[in-house]
Amino acid sequence: MSSVIHCGSQVPTIETSRLLLRPHRPDDFTASAAMWADPAVTRHIGGKPLSAQEVWARLLRYAGHWCWMGFGYWAIEEKASGTFAGELGFANYKRDIPSIQDLPEMGWVLARTMQGKGYATEAVRAALAWGDTRFESMR
């Protein structure tokens, strides 16, 4: 009988002055699906809204990155309200781009209501600081 692996404990939580970068939870699905279904959010990220099924697969891919790669995406939570604000992190998508082959690439997305507040800059800075220590051997 195989055991169930829970990788959530491997995901560090990073705190900034206004945000928590934390592991995704199953209850993030509704907010994440709403964010990815918003054409204004996806206009420059793939060009089309995502279905609920596509978002669920994305969330599972995030968890898989942490388990297999030791890095991945965080859920961004607004500390003051506890509201899901977006997602940000590192991934290795095995893209056919030689210059980034097998290197972690960073990405982020914010819900429309969370845009224009400086949250992306704040979250990216925190994640890059984490990445500077985690990926030091890749330089």
Runs in which pLDDT lies below 50 for 5 or more consecutive residues are none
* N-C termini distance: 41 Å
Shape field: globular
Can you count the beta strands? 5
If you average the pLDDT, what whole number results? 91
Rg (C-alpha, Å): 15 Å
**Biggest sheet descriptor:** 5 strands, antiparallel
Short description:
It is built from four helices and five strands. It is of the alpha+beta class.
Structural account:
The protein is α+β, with helices and mostly antiparallel strands. The protein has a 5-stranded antiparallel beta sheet, with helices on both faces. A hairpin with a 4-residue loop joins β3 and β4 (83-91). The chain has 4 helices and 5 strands, in the order ββαααβββα. The mean pLDDT is 91.
List the helices and strands and how they pair.
Elements: E1 14-15, E2 19-22, H1 29-37, H2 39-42, H3 52-69, E3 73-78, E4 83-91, E5 105-110, H4 119-134
Antiparallel strand pairs: 1-2, 2-3, 3-4, 4-5
Helix pairs in contact: 1-3
Feature tags:
139 residues; alpha+beta; 5-stranded antiparallel beta sheet; globular
